[in-house]
Design a protein that fits this description.
Structural class: alpha/beta
Number of helices: 11
CATH topology of the largest domain: Glutaconate Coenzyme A-transferase
Largest sheet: 8 strands, parallel
Number of domains: 2
Low-confidence stretches: none
Strand order of the largest sheet: 1-15-12-9-2-3-4-5
Length: 506
């Protein structure tokens, strides 16, 4: 193992290599190394024709993370659970322009592929994603016309359908930690999550590849506590020390995210009374005491603030797929972390638990819903954020609650006096005849006896055998004018149609 500068480290990456990168947006981001890799290509034209693979989108700002790979000839193929939804993203524009191949693979499946590479298995077999857009009978996760070859096939084993992903050999893994000693042992004491960094390193090592670890500081041999070492030095080829390494998810270290201290939750302010709060209040009614809860990005992130206001937060254990257990999720800027966590698991372990059915309830956003109850969150015209962990999380979770406004794009709503007043309708309908992509297959969920609810500010729907059924509407809302006429399909209306509690609107 050598302690080298970033420029020397990226010299380990050769033309045609497959490069695996850790990170979740701006959390655990090895930005120093990625920046050096881009600078080398711009100066020399090498390395070129890379395949970049990421379990979670790394970098969510202009010119960071995955954006460093956004150059013609530098990157030939990208594989990941998601891509940037920002209009400034050069990588997204390259994919839209068919300038490189791109695939979307569920987050848990990407981690499983690293496990397969680390253990020498030739493929990963899973039923996660059957009858969704990653199924090869639909589009196999391909994001554009340039993407021709399949990286997944449909197989039948013991009369059941599975998706088979051949293992992808990893030539270089780029990871990040807090401290490395002179033997290359890496700790993550200042990081709120670990995001599979050890598995990435093991995958690269056992494929005959290299591991580059970026850290903030260097320690003497033998000075690190063995229990704190996340990536053993036997896996690490190069250490890059960056004293200016950014803090995960912010500008200052928050020790409440790592469990070093516990913050008083009373300092979290209540949400203003608006459509978002109405949705959250109604959605929170679906949580039973003592349940383990996962929250998706968007509106669901604020479920804990509603629980705090109602004094029921102690009855929930929040468990994001990034690995924090307990406490309260930290909000959109540090999505995937928890304030005051009780424990920290690696993402590879989290998905094993989720896919086994251990998760009780998940709250997720939605972009489109059709009459069957199928949901799209992965593609909207020129915006293609991908699925992240959405497909894995909805696979066997007992109760799924989708949360979102009824329409979007200019929706103006007034909440007062125990009711809802729709001042101006959004220009985009979200309950559509056919979703652009199936990210959640309602028929699969019904066959697995999962309980599925769709909550908006003006209406609540349930998934039944016949498809979507309207069960509740908001006080002040007219069924025909405000609900049915703003849908692209006729929906079944429950004979026991109820009014949402007026307390949600006060």
């Amino acid at each position: 193992m050598k302690v080298v500068n970033a420029e020397e480290a990226v010299g380990l990456i050769q033309d045609g290599d497959t490069v695996a990168v850790c990170g979740c947006e701006n959390i655990l981001l090895p930005e120093k190394v990625l920046g050096a890799l881009e600078a080398k290509f711009l100066a020399t034209g090498h390395p070129r024709h890379l395949t970049e693979i990421h379990p979670i989108l790394h970098g969510m700002d202009r010119g960071v993370g995955l954006e460093h790979f956004a150059h013609d000839e530098m990157t030939a193929r990208v594989i990941g659970s998601g891509y940037s939804f920002l209009k400034t993203s050069k990588m997204t524009q390259m994919l839209l322009d068919n300038r490189l191949e791109g695939y979307v693979v569920p987050m848990g499946t990407v981690f499983a592929l690293f496990q397969a590479a680390a253990s020498g298995r030739p493929f990963h077999l899973t039923d996660v994603g059957i009858n969704t857009f990653v199924d090869p009978r639909l589009c196999g996760g391909k994001v554009n016309q340039k993407t021709g070859a399949n990286i997944v096939s449909l197989e039948r084993v013991q009369e059941k359908e599975y998706l088979l992903y051949p293992t992808i050999p990893v030539n270089v893994a780029i990871i990040r930690g807090t401290t490395a000693d002179m033997n290359g042992n890496v700790t993550l004491e200042d990081e709120p999550v670990s995001l599979g960094v050890r598995m990435l390193a093991m995958a690269a090592r056992n494929c005959g590849g290299k591991v580059i670890a970026q850290v903030r500081r260097l320690a003497q041999r033998g000075s690190l506590k063995p229990a704190q070492v996340v990536v053993p030095g036997i896996l690490v080829d190069a250490v890059v020390v960056d004293p200016e390494q950014s803090v995960s998810g912010g500008t200052a270290l928050n020790p409440a995210l790592t469990g070093e201290i516990r913050l008083p939750l009373e300092v979290i302010p209540p949400l203003p009374l608006d459509a978002r709060k109405v949705i959250l209040r109604r959605a929170a009614e679906e949580v039973r005491p003592g349940t383990v809860v996962n929250l998706g990005v968007g509106i669901p992130v604020d479920i804990p603030r509603i629980a705090l206001e109602a004094g029921v937060v102690d009855g929930m254990t929040f468990f994001p797929e990034q690995g924090s257990i307990g406490g309260v999720p930290g909000g959109r800027a540090i999505f995937g972390t928890n304030i005051n966590p009780e424990g920290l698991l690696d993402s590879t372990d989290v998905f094993n638990y989720f896919l086994g059915g251990g998760l009780d309830t998940t709250f997720l956003g939605f972009g489109q819903i059709d009459s069957c109850g199928n949901v799209n969150v992965s593609k909207f015209g020129n915006i293609m954020p991908g699925c992240g962990g959405f497909i894995d999380i909805t696979h066997r979770t007992k109760k799924i609650v989708f949360c979102g406004t009824f329409t979007s794009g200019g929706l103006a709503i007034e909440v007062q006096g125990g009711g809802l007043n729709i001042i101006g309708e959004g220009k985009n309908r979200k309950l559509v005849r056919e979703v652009e992509q199936i990210t959640f297959n309602a028929q699969n969920a019904h066959a697995r006896n999962q309980e599925v609810t769709y909550v908006t500010e003006r209406a609540v729907f349930r998934l039944e055998s016949s498809g979507l059924v309207l069960t509740e509407i908001a006080p002040g809302v007219q069924l025909e004018k405000d609900v049915l006429k703003n849908m692209d399909f006729r929906v079944a209306v429950s004979r026991e149609l109820k009014q949402m509690k007026d307390g949600f609107f006060r």
